[in-house]
Predict the 3D structure of the following.
Amino acid sequence: MTDVIDSLVGIAPGSKLDAIRAQRIEARKHAQASFTSLFEPKQLGGVTTDERHAIASFVTGLHGEPKTDAFYAAKLPANLRSAVAAEVAAAKTKGPYGHFPKGPLSVEDTPGPTWKVSDAGRAALGPRLAAAFEHTHMLVFHPRDASAASLQSLLDAGWSTDDIVTVSQLVSFLSYQIRVVAGLGVLASTL
Amino acid sequence: MSTDKTLTPPPHTEPVVFTRDMLDWLPWLEPMAEADMTEHHIKSLVDAARVKSPYFRLLARDPDVLEARTRTDKDIFYNPEAGLPRAERELAAAATSRLNGCIYCASVHARFAATYSKRVDDVQRLLDEGVEARLDERWEAIVAASVALTALPMTFGKDHVERLRAVGLDDAAIADLIGAASFFNWANRLMLSLGVPATQPK
């Protein structure tokens, strides 16, 4: 199967970057295995394929890296496309911001929005995905504001503990993959 | 409604500064009980000793993703072949964690950066003052590149690559830096969102 990072960066076999990635063969193989485990898992567990793709498309939309975004947007169920696009447009901001535990670091607190899905978005996405999108926005832009209460909101919306682990990994993995693709893309453009 | 519940951590003191001290981490969601873990779950930990860690037992709820995450992590940081020296991979991890605000991750990787570089004061200055701290040109270039990869929107560009080359990083080293900073955007989000750091009892 095609290596997603290689394919999104445009790393051709035999190229300089191909040789560089080959020096970290385990990282290359397991970054791909992470993708497969999240998007083509042996067992879906409690998180459906459509949910995985909807959350992924929201994450990549928020990052605004065109190639990665197009790759995940193409997997999105057609009935969710416009809803996800509308929420991305409303939710996109700058990061990372957020609060530190009260104390000497409080002078570094950077305020920013606690974003909520629109009413129209909530109707299109349903309560489970709406809760996941709100949590995802926090993870992407202001992860240091995380709290047990954000996890409780996911539980209240019907996500189990197992599901939350999967969703957290999915958002966090994409935060990695998007940056590797962008970073290697810049490096490739200088070779 | 799920019948699962969030956990209220036991009484603890949350660190309020970035530190190189050893910290604990207390989960907000129930880790797997050791007794419930199958061979598949145990294998996903990669290091069997991690069965004692609530963080890894929580992530073991999705074992295939955990195993792939861990093997990616280990190769990015521990593979000694060529590329960026270990100390500077750790520096990129610490800088990324400093910017995102992951006090736990920053503590671990600042310790490693200090151990491998022996530049304890510089590492501590990064923790105390943040990613704008004065280090030296090579370390400032590495920190600036990590910040540019972490910030949203990302600002990492050719100027960062040129600055890294000017301080002696070759292409493989730059690729390692990209891997290390990007990986900590993964790790920080798990650590920050699934539990809370605590100071260790004296």
